[in-house]
Amino acid sequence: MSIVIRDVREHELDSVLALNNAAGPAILPLDAARLRRFYTDADYFRVAERDGTLAGFLVGFSSTANHDSDNFRWFREHYPDFFYIDRIVVASRRRGGGVGRAFYADVQSHAELRYPQLACEVFLDDGNDPALLFHGSFGFREVGQHVMATTGDAPGHRAAMLLKDLCSYPWVHDTYGGHLPDVPWIAAPRAHRASAHRATGT
Prior knowledge:
With 202 residues, the protein is an alpha+beta fold. The chain contains seven helices and seven strands, in the order βααββαβαβαββαα. The two termini are 32 Å apart.
């Protein structure tokens, strides 16, 4: 069956939270309040649907977002303009089936019209060669390492900070500046969600 990438719906947040907190040590845990902030504030919050069920999700922020992630702040201290992938989670039973690649193709198509670089991190504490290889196959390169702040008794995670130059951005920026054509496939994911909220009165 095909993979459908679409905006998250508010009633799906509990399922998204369960997916996140079952993902294992490579993904930081969330509580409902923080996930709600993602739903309200993220520039990109989309889910993958396969066979009628959620197969994963991806959350992303622009470099100007009011986002409190330690790793996001590292990128903002080093780079002026980028789009940041905060997290991608794929359900365990769907891993290896193309969901991650579908997400990265979709988030890149959003980012490359608006930002010169795409940023993310991979935790290194337990070795994470599959994730590093996955990102390398998409053109990411390591631009540094960062140890996150210690929380409670737990030491901070060490992360490889990854960046990808988006080759389409210079042409788009020179041609259209900040005024992209008003066509549905270019509309930002949050714009689709806002339109849906206005239509339903929520």
